[in-house]
Amino acid sequence: MGLDQYAYKAQRAGQRAEFYEDGEFVNGEWKNPSAEKPEELAYWRKHPNLQGWMEQLWLRKGGSNSGSQWGSNFNGVELELTWEDLDDLEQDVLNGDLPSTQGFFFGSNSDNEYKEDDLKFIGLARLALTEGYQVFYNSSW
Asked: Binning pLDDT at 50, 70 and 90, where does residue 70 land?
């Protein structure tokens, strides 16, 4: 177990869940003839401070951790990222300002190891937005 984090482009919210929940795993690949697979833009394994940054964004957008037995309800939540969110993330990555975040399955600070990947993701996400897609972040721990 551990923190797995995904960013993807899709035509609408819920598209990723629809594809995987209604799909099937055949010959080592997910298939779903009734739903389009969203395109993965980035994958991180145990990047806790990015998770903390995304959770803070989710809370600012109206998410809530009240009633969580784990201290956070931000698990398996599809979070839409806007151009402004990506600008803010870029500044925090460049300035080393991702919030220090800990969790049992999260691993240790990996900001330096993921910095170039984070910046590459931001560029790909901006391109996806200009192409008319929506960009989402999701995680599982």
From this structure: low
